[in-house]
Design a protein that fits this description.
The protein is built from three helices and three strands, in the order αββαβα. By secondary structure, the chain is an alpha+beta fold. It has a single domain, classed as K homology (KH) domain (GMP Synthetase, Chain A, domain 3). The chain is globular.
């Protein structure tokens, strides 16, 4: 059965997702020694309604290698989960996956297309 992720900001799953986003960001910023992780920013955490699975979305700075950042996240995942578990936020630690937040890049691409349309827009008749 697929977990049901909700985008609506309602109820306990939303509060837990925001708390996880905050804690994950602090762990990545202050406790992870890998310099590749300094190139990312967490944008959102989605959690299933049963609180067993979470997806953490991130963007990377310009010039950073996406593959290197993802590899660093995969390598640090065990440590990150251990740090979260020590904080005793939840009885059961959700399974966390990190994914690139492509909405930022899609927005950037749309803005670029709109700028191009403005330069080469329809001629006044």
């Amino acid at each position: 059965m697929k977990p049901s992720y909700r985008r609506q900001p309602k109820g306990r799953p939303h509060r837990v997702a925001e708390l996880l986003r905050e804690r994950l960001a602090l762990i990545l910023l202050h406790k992870c020694a890998d310099p590749r992780l300094a190139d990312l920013t967490l944008t959102e955490v989605e959690i299933s309604s049963d609180l067993k699975q979470a997806r953490a979305f991130y963007v990377v700075r310009q010039g950073a290698e996406l593959e290197a950042v993802q590899a660093a996240l995969d390598k640090a995942l065990g440590y990150i989960k251990q740090e979260l578990a020590q904080e005793h936020l939840l009885r059961v630690m959700p399974e966390i996956t990190f994914r690139l937040d492509d909405t930022y890049y899609q927005t950037e691409r749309l803005e670029e297309l709109f700028r191009e349309m403005g330069k080469h827009g329809p001629e006044d008749k």
